[in-house]
Write a structure and sequence with these properties.
The protein contains two helices and 18 strands. By secondary structure, it is mainly β.
Length: 310
């Protein structure tokens, strides 16, 4: 069974683990948007992430792996590969193959240089290739890492691109968030709204999804999602998630995910807390007492957080 999730702290007790094979899964956000995925793996020397759904690496995701010597990222739909994600790893044997989705701009000049110097291998043995002989970079075709953008370089092997053609442009930037969703308190059985706005460059269509606790929201969300688009020098997409008849189950961490052909962007997480309005479960009754004696009146209320009665 393929997995798309890695619980935070999953590896925290495995500080003696030497090798970790996570290939042939559907992992994306634990590598793209989390920086503590590998907390605890101080001694890990080999990490296989081949054949997942990784489109970019969080710049800090490899920081908990100071001993890492072999990293396989082959067969992932990588669009961006920041050097900052691996620059702290000394003597790293990095394998990258079967990548056809790369944004070829000035940010990949380091990758091209390492490919040309054969510091990065273009092939690595994966679990499904265990009966084959691993192929070294010297015998692999140069088509293993291909550019997808800009259009003028689409389908061109990165190793064959003139370095002068690796230019940065706003039209090649992934989407960015102009408005982040805000943490809020929703009342039980009431209505709540979360909003985010995304700006996308060029002519690439921006898609926005809402996620709760890193999982796609179910299609039966009561209220639904409203989308609005404005066109200009760049696209701006506003997405409003409306939750009606709020229940306790609606509490959690909500996040916008923006996607274009140029990459993905994750918003900050917004915490939704559900409160219930105070309700009297016991009201004071009329009493008759003699002059000078004590009177006792009782009342009680329920709600969340617990109400104060005064």
């Amino acid at each position: 069974m393929c997995s798309s999730d890695l619980e935070e702290g999953l590896f925290s007790a495995l500080n003696a683990l030497q090798a970790l094979d996570l290939s042939n899964n559907q992992l994306s956000w634990p590598l793209e948007d989390a920086q503590n995925t590998f907390i605890g793996l101080h001694q890990c020397k080999t990490l296989n992430l081949a054949n997942n759904l990784i489109r970019r690496l969080h710049p800090q995701v490899m920081v908990p792996l100071p001993s890492l010597r072999q990293l396989n990222l082959s067969a992932n739909p990588l669009t961006w590969f920041p050097q900052t994600a691996v620059i702290h790893l000394q003597r790293l044997d990095l394998a990258v193959a079967d990548v056809t989705t790369l944004i070829c701009d000035c940010k990949v000049t380091w990758l091209q240089a390492n490919l040309n110097q054969q510091s990065i291998r273009l092939a690595a043995r994966t679990r499904h290739q265990k009966h084959r002989h691993p192929t070294s970079s010297t015998s692999m075709p140069h088509t293993s890492v291909l550019c997808a953008h800009p259009p003028s370089l689409a389908g061109t092997p990165l190793r064959e691109v003139d370095v002068e053609d690796l230019r940065c442009s706003k039209e090649l930037e992934p989407p960015t968030f102009a408005q982040q969703p805000r943490s809020q308190v929703f009342l039980l059985e009431g209505t709540g709204r979360l909003e985010c706005s995304v700006e996308g460059s060029g002519n690439e269509t921006v898609e926005v999804e809402w996620r709760k606790n890193h999982e796609e929201l179910p299609t039966h969300v009561d209220g639904g999602v409203q989308m609005s688009r404005s066109l200009g020098p760049s696209q701006r997409v506003t997405s409003i998630l409306e939750l009606r008849n709020v229940s306790w189950a609606d509490g959690g961490r909500y996040q916008c995910l923006a996607k274009t052909a140029l990459g993905v962007a994750y918003s900050e997480s917004a915490n939704v807390t559900v409160h219930s309005a105070p309700t009297f479960v016991k009201r004071p009754n009329n009493v008759s007492v003699r002059l000078g004696s004590n009177a006792k009146l009782e009342c009680a209320a329920t709600g969340f957080p617990a109400p104060e009665i005064g």
